[in-house]
Design goal:
The chain has one domain: Beta Barrel (Maltoporin, Chain A), CATH 2.40.170. The chain has 1 helix and 39 strands. The longest helix has 4 residues.
Length: 660
C-alpha cells in the first residue's frame, strides 16, 4: 500500500505506538499508520470546488471526466479502474461512512468538507463496500456548540458563477446539532457550435446537504443526513481531430440528472469497543442524455444517441471495532449488505445501420463479512491479518431491437485475504510491506446479442507493496516512498462492436501494473507549505487477444492509465491575512483504446493554477486562475464516437466570502 502524507495537518515527531489499520471519523495519524493512505485536510484552502479540481493530489490517481458530469467517468488508481458502463467501481467512494455506489452516481462537488482520505490498494477487509483499487473517503465538517455560518460568491470567465452558503450549530447544547449547506453553479460553456451559434456545454446545477447529530450521552452518536443535487446541463463533447472548442451539430446535446442520498448512522461506544450501524439509500436519475453526432451538411443521416438511467441502491452495514489504542490487540470487522437496481432505456441511431433500442434492468445484491486483526505487542513490529468473504448475485432482464429477450442471473463467491507487516525502526522511520487480494465481481453487458454471451467474469488482483514513511528536521519534512506490483487475472476491458458501435465488457486474460510513488511535504517556516506528489505506473496486457478483431494485444497498455502523474504546490499564509498558492499538475501520456492507436492517445500535458487572497476575521477576497498558460489538451478521447472531452481553457475569476 502507499506511503501517504497528511496535508494541512500539524506535523509531529512525538513517539507513538503504530496505529492499527482502521478508518473512523477522527483524523488518522498518517505517519504512524502502516497502510496506503494520503490525507488532504481543508481542501477548500486549495481553491478546489470539485474533485476534478484537485487533479492528482495523490500519486497515480486519475479521474478521467466524461462529457456529462460523473456518468461515464473512468477512475483509475495504480492502473486499476472501472469501465464506462456495466462494471463495478474499482475505487469505492464513501461520504461520512455512506457508500456512494456506482461511479456514475458519485458526487463530485466539495461542500463543507473537513478532509479527504485516499486509501490505496485493496481495502475489502476494512470497508463494507467492496473495492479493488482503494477507497476515496470524504469526511464532512461536523457542527459543534459554536454557531458558524458562511456565504461565498465567485465569478469567472465564461460567465462562471458559483454561490454557496451554509450554517451549523447547536439546537440543544451538547446534545443536538444541525448543519445545512447549499450551492448553485452556472457556466455558459466554452465550446462553440457554429451551426446554431450556441455553447453546447453550458452547465447549471443545485446541490445541498442537511444533517442532524444527536448525542444524548457520551456513549451515543446518532446522525441523520439528507443530500441531493439537480443538474440541467449541456454536454462537453467535440469531434476528434478538429478544433478543441468547436462542436458543430444540427442540435445541441443536453443532460438532465438528479440524485439524492438519505442515511442514518448510529454509534454506541462501550468500554473497549464500539458498534456502528449505517443504513443508507442512494438514488440517481439521468433522463435523458442526448448526443448528436450528425454532420450539419448531412443532417438527415441518423447519428444520434439518447440514454436514460434510473438507479437505486440500499445498503446496511454493521461494524464492531476495538477502542483501546494502547492494547496489543486491535480489531475491526462487520457485515455489509446492499441491493441495487439500475434501469436503462438507450436508443442508438448510427448511419447506415438501423436504429437500436435497448431496455434493460440490472440487479445486484451483495452480502459480505469483513474484518482484520492487528497485533502490536512485539515492541516495534505490527502484524495485521484481514479478510473479506463476499457473495454477489447479479441479474439482467433485457429487451433489444433485432435481438431475442435476455434473462440471466448468477451468484459469485469471492474471498480476499490480506497481510501487512510494519516495523517502526525509530519514531521517524516506518517500513511496511503488504500482500493481498482484491477483486471486482463480474456481471452482464446490456448490449450483447445471443448467442454471444453478455456475461463477463470476475477480475482478481494480487496486490503487493513495499513502503517507507519518514520524518525529518524535527517534523518539518515528511518524505514517503512506495513500490507496488499488481498481478491481475481476467482484467475487465470495454470493447466496441465495429458493426453496431455498442460497448460491452470483456475479460483480458492477464494484466500487470507496477510502479513507484513519492510524496513530500515541507514546512520550512511558519505559514509556508511545499508539497509534491509524483507517481509512475507501467501497465500492460500480458496476455490478451481482442475477441472481436482477433488482434493480439500482448504488451499494449490498457486504456485510461497515464504513465506519470504529479502535483507540485507551494502555499503561503501570512499572519497579516494575505495568502497565495501556486500549483502545477502533470498528466503523462495516456492511451484511450486497447490497441494504443496514435489517434486515441494524448501526450503529456501540464496545468498551472494559482490563487491569491486576503482573509480577515469575518470576510475574505480571492483571485484565482486555472490553466494559466492556456494549455490545449484533451481530457478524454472517446474512440467509439470519434469524439473528445476538451480540457478547460484558461479561467480567471474572483471570489468573495463571509464567515461568522
Amino acid at each position: 500500500m502507499l506511503a501517504g502524507v497528511a496535508r494541512g495537518q500539524q506535523l509531529t515527531n512525538q513517539p507513538s505506538r503504530l496505529s492499527p489499520i482502521v478508518v473512523e471519523a477522527p483524523a488518522i495519524s498518517v505517519q504512524q499508520t502502516p497502510s496506503a493512505v494520503t490525507v488532504l485536510s481543508a481542501p477548500s484552502d486549495t481553491g478546489a470546488r470539485t474533485l476534478y479540481d484537485l487533479g492528482a493530489f495523490a500519486p497515480n490517481l486519475r479521474l478521467t471526466p466524461s462529457p456529462s458530469r460523473a456518468f461515464g467517468d473512468v477512475q483509475t488508481l495504480r492502473g486499476v479502474g472501472n469501465t464506462q458502463f456495466f462494471s463495478s467501481p474499482a475505487l469505492a467512494m464513501y461520504v461520512d461512512d455512506v457508500p456512494m455506489g456506482s461511479v456514475m452516481t458519485f458526487p463530485m462537488d466539495l461542500l463543507q468538507i473537513e478532509r479527504i482520505e485516499l486509501w490505496r490498494g485493496p481495502q475489502g477487509a476494512a470497508f463494507g463496500q467492496n473495492n479493488e483499487a482503494g477507497v476515496l473517503n470524504i469526511v464532512s465538517r461536523r457542527a459543534t456548540n459554536r454557531t458558524e455560518a458562511f456565504a461565498d460568491a465567485s465569478y469567472g470567465t465564461y460567465n462562471e458563477q458559483v454561490y454557496r452558503a451554509g450554517v451549523m450549530g447547536p439546537i440543544i447544547k451538547d446534545k443536538l446539532f444541525y448543519a445545512i449547506a447549499g450551492e448553485f453553479s452556472h457556466l455558459d460553456g466554452f465550446l462553440d457550435n457554429p451551426t446554431l451559434h450556441t455553447h453546447p456545454d453550458k452547465q447549471e446545477g443545485w446541490n445541498g446537504r442537511f444533517s442532524l447529530a444527536w448525542t444524548p450521552t457520551a456513549d451515543w452518536d446518532i446522525s441523520l443526513t439528507l443530500a441531493g443535487e439537480k443538474r440541467d446541463d449541456g454536454v462537453r463533447i467535440a469531434p476528434l481531430g478538429g478544433d478543441l472548442f468547436r462542436a458543430p451539430a444540427p442540435s445541441d446535446p443536453f443532460a438532465r440528472s438528479d440524485s439524492n442520498t438519505e442515511s442514518l448512522r448510529i454509534v454506541r461506544a462501550f468500554d473497549n469497543f464500539s458498534i456502528t450501524t449505517i443504513t443508507s439509500r442512494r438514488g440517481y436519475s439521468l433522463d435523458p442524455l442526448f448526443l448528436d453526432f450528425r454532420d450539419p451538411s448531412y443532417a438527415l443521416w441518423p447519428n444520434t444517441v439518447q440514454l436514460a438511467r434510473h438507479y437505486e441502491s440500499w445498503s446496511q452495514e454493521l461494524r464492531l471495532q476495538s477502542l483501546n489504542v494502547t492494547a496489543p490487540w486491535q480489531w475491526r470487522g462487520g457485515f455489509f449488505f446492499s441491493t441495487t437496481r439500475q434501469q436503462g432505456e438507450d436508443t442508438r441511431a448510427y448511419f447506415p445501420g438501423p436504429t437500436r433500442v435497448t431496455n434493460f434492468t440490472l440487479d445486484d445484491d451483495n452480502y459480505a463479512l469483513y474484518g482484520q486483526l492487528t497485533y502490536a505487542g512485539c515492541d516495534k513490529l505490527t502484524i495485521t491479518l484481514g479478510t473479506r468473504l463476499d457473495y454477489t448475485v447479479r441479474g439482467i432482464d433485457r429487451n433489444q431491437t433485432f435481438a431475442a429477450p435476455l434473462q440471466a442471473h448468477k451468484g459469485v463467491f469471492n474471498a480476499a485475504p490480506k497481510i501487512t507487516l510494519a516495523y517502526q525502526f525509530t519514531t521517524n522511520l516506518l517500513a511496511y510491506a503488504s500482500t493481498g487480494v482484491g477483486f471486482k465481481p463480474g456481471g452482464y453487458s446490456a448490449y450483447m446479442d445471443p448467442p454471444v454471451s453478455s456475461e463477463f467474469g470476475t477480475e482478481r488482483n494480487w496486490a503487493n507493496e513495499l513502503g517507507l514513511k519518514t520524518t525529518w528536521l524535527d517534523g518539518k519534512l515528511l518524505a514517503n516512498v512506495a513500490l507496488f506490483y499488481n498481478y491481475i487475472r481476467d482484467y475487465q476491458v470495454e470493447l466496441m462492436n465495429l458493426f453496431t458501435g455498442d460497448l460491452s465488457v470483456y475479460n483480458a486474460d492477464r494484466v500487470t501494473t507496477c510502479g513507484a510513488e513519492l510524496e513530500l511535504i515541507a514546512r520550512p517556516m511558519r505559514g509556508l507549505e511545499l508539497t509534491a506528489a509524483a507517481g509512475y505506473t507501467h501497465a500492460e496486457f500480458d496476455r490478451f487477444t481482442n475477441p472481436l478483431t482477433l488482434a493480439n494485444l500482448d504488451g499494449r497498455t490498457p486504456p485510461y492509465i497515464p504513465n506519470i502523474t504529479a502535483t507540485l504546490a507551494a502555499q503561503y499564509k501570512a499572519p497579516c491575512g494575505f495568502l497565495g498558492r501556486l500549483e502545477y499538475q502533470l498528466t503523462g501520456h495516456t492511451y484511450y483504446d486497447e490497441a494504443n492507436t496514435a489517434a486515441a492517445s494524448e501526450s503529456a500535458y501540464g496545468l498551472l493554477n494559482a490563487r491569491l487572497g486576503y482573509e480577515a476575521r469575518y470576510w475574505g477576497v480571492y483571485l484565482y486562475g486555472r490553466n494559466l498558460t492556456d494549455t490545449g489538451y484533451r481530457a478524454r478521447i472517446i474512440p467509439a464516437s470519434n469524439s473528445i472531452v476538451p480540457g478547460d481553457p484558461r479561467t480567471l475569476g474572483v471570489m468573495l466570502s463571509a464567515r461568522y
